[in-house]
Design brief:
about 90 residues; alpha+beta; Glutaredoxin; 4 strands; about 45% helix
Length: about 90
Amino acid sequence: MTAHVVMYSTAVCPYCQRAEALLKARGVGEIEKILIDVDPARRDEMTTRTGRRTVPQIFIGDTHVGGFDDLSALDRGGKLAPLLAA
């Protein structure tokens, strides 16, 4: 079983798609996607929670991972798998 993953994204974001592909390749079966282009209030929520305005913004459990580059760096450094297993 993997940790709960939440990803703020938009429907056409290529980095969001890459993040989702990487997470699924690492065994994540379900990602709670919050589409900020569909619900602008959720964009404000994302900005408040993360201090960032770009997508994707990814949370694994209660940990804010950041965007795709941050997620990819965690994976390359061997730190993504333990975070997903928590």
